Amino acid sequence: MYAFLKHVIVVILTAEARFLLARKRPTVIAITGSVGKTSMKDAIYAIVKERVHARKSEKSFNSELGIPLTVLGLPNAWNSPVGWLRNIVDGAFIAIFARSYPELLVIEAGVDRPGDMRRLTAWLRPKVVVLTRLPDVPVHVEYFSSPEAVAEEKLLLPAALSRDGIIVYNHDDLKLSEYAKDVQQKAIGYGRDLPTDVTARADATYYEHGVPAGFKVTVEHGGEAVEVKVPGVCGWQLSYTVAGALATAVATGLPLIEAARALSQSVPPPGRMRILAGIKSTAIIDDSYNSSPVAVAAALETLNELKVTGRKIAVLGDMLELGRFSLREHERAGELAAKAVDVLVTVGIRSQKTAEAALGSGLSEEQILQYEEVEKAGRELQNFIKPGDVLLIKGSQGMRMERIVLELMAEPDRASELLPRQDDAWQER
């Protein structure tokens, strides 16, 4: 019954959203990939909202239900039948009668299962598609026959572009760079390792009073170079977010320097490599929003490169929805952690393999703490940490690793502002 009612709601809201788009004809920028979609979406929105009336997908509204809600400007009603009925009525009114509407929509488009993108492209026609990355083992691979099937599903989005559309792609991703060679549309590459249309250089964490304070990178395009400094966040992987957002700005006709200025004033989304003050004069790298093998590797590399006065502690929760790749990828995380940290803390049953692999790769038993529950991990870590320690906290969304961050952050009263999943519906789960 639940599945049937959800299907009915999706069909109705999609029809309303489709009608509204046909009536208002906004420019649509759609972002897809298996890593960094939400950060890219927020960065692009931070740039374009200075120029035009724009709307972005809220949080990670990237599903068959979330995207129509974004188009219609409606909230998620979660488990409230009355709320969904209200959304249907409001959606119909907006679709038929709305006068004021954004000129530009920045949409995050994800896929959970086969067929998701095909259903989306049946009614959503973007002008610009931004492709972030298609790693060898993507999140949600559990529901597909192979990683290649995930990539094929996601690439249905740029395939839906008209000939005058624009593709902005990660040139360092070999799958995407090969794909871009054969497209009919204008293709603009961005990257960090290989020279391309928009290239990030000299990325680094900057420090204040000996503590990580933010991220800086120089971006080059057409003989012009600009520096972007984003406070309160770290990680070389952010070079791709910055370069991709600036490439999108260039593709839509915005001056590079103006786009860089807007991006430097943006606030990074919660739970994505955010730097937070911790108790006992510690620092927290909060990457608790979600997790995947490639994201864990990047986060551990960042932790390894940080300059700290205390210990480097990685708190890693289970990576979910990896299917048959789960065992090996958790072991790989342990092997990488052994090279990057002074202490490894694992949370969850799957992450026991991470701990075992770290032990076999050089960490001692005294350097490894294991927990099954986030609540216990958070409580006991309060006593374990020392001044000067830097903690990376990361895990899949279902692990709720932000609860550990809440136990260790210096300003828990700002949790609703600084942490992911703080609304009432998530708190009740």
Any overview of this molecule?
This protein is α/β, with parallel strands linked by helices and 429 residues long. The protein has two domains: 263 residues, Mur-like, catalytic domain (UDP-N-acetylmuramoyl-L-alanine:D-glutamate ligase, 3-Layer(aba) Sandwich), CATH 3.40.1190.10; 154 residues, Mur ligase, C-terminal domain (Protein-Tyrosine Phosphatase, Chain A, Alpha-Beta Complex). Helices cover 40% and strands 21% of the residues. The strands form two sheets. Strands 2-3-1-4-5-6-7-8-9 form a nine-stranded mixed beta sheet, with helices on both faces. A six-stranded mixed beta sheet has the order 10-11-15-12-13-14, with helices on both faces. Helix 1 packs parallel to helix 3 and helix 11 packs parallel to helix 12. The longest helix is centred in the N-terminal third of the chain and has 23 residues. The chain starts with a helix and ends with a helix.
CATH topology of the largest domain: UDP-N-acetylmuramoyl-L-alanine:D-glutamate ligase
* Count of DSSP-assigned helices: 17
- Based on helices, strands and strand pairing, what is the structural class? alpha/beta
Query: How large is the share of residues in beta strands?
Result: 15-25%
What is the level-2 CATH architecture name of the largest domain?
Answer: 3-Layer(aba) Sandwich
In total, the number of strands is 15
Helix content range of the residues, please?
25-40%
Strand order of the largest sheet: 2-3-1-4-5-6-7-8-9
| Distance between the ends | 21 Å
Supply Rg: 21 Å
- Which descriptor suits the 3D outline? globular
Q: Name the poorly predicted regions.
A: none
Main β-sheet: number of strands, strand sense, barrel status?
Answer: 9 strands, mixed
